[in-house]
Amino acid sequence: MDRVTSELGVVIERFRADCGSFSKEIIQTVEQRCNTFYICAANCGSRHEEFRQLEEWKSVEVGYERCDVTSVSMDNLIEGKSYRLVVQRTPLKDRHGREQTDMFGVIYTYRCILTNNRTSTEKDIITFYNERGASEKNFDIQNNDFGWSHLPFSFMAENMVFMMVTAMLKNFYLYLVRHISDKVKPLKKTSRLKAFILHFVSVPAKWVRTGRQNVLNLYTNKTYYAEVFIE
Fold this sequence. Notes:
Helix content: 25-40%
Largest sheet: 6 strands, mixed
Number of helices: 7
Number of domains: 2
Strand content: 25-35%
Structural class: alpha+beta
Order of helices and strands: HEHEHEEEEEEHHHEEH
Number of strands: 10
């Protein structure tokens, strides 16, 4: 980062990283080179009692789930520096979806983001930070569903073509699965390729000649194939 920003004169507008970057040295370097940063704070467990005493929580919806958020100042990390710690708490639930409690009340799981952004709302900061996970998931899908983890060629030029084609295929796949998921009940609009193959592709079939025409017989009790192909 030092070489890129100093030699090329690059100014990073926003930087986000997981808790592996939560250290004094990295935070100081990032603050010098970036306008704003968002770093997942480690060791939040040691602050649970402090968080439990906070009263000014706001209820928001993040990622289709309700949670409580608030902000506190963090002044003891680096001498002479004060940062904003955005705290998110979510009720811990059992496998039946019921909130778990102890003698002090509802049990919460806490997640914290350290930032020098003092103006944005807690929800905006959490939403922006969570977008890094969406990018990682996209690469996970390409690696495991579309062969990026085992590239077929020895040269990068050929592999680049392979990666571009499979990236386009993923877009076609997303369109297809969103189109048929309403009729194929086991599938969801976000189903991965393995689920699509299991519930839609893997079925015994045989072409038979009858009535002077070829008919594809599907040997399955799944009825949604007729709905998909008739349309």
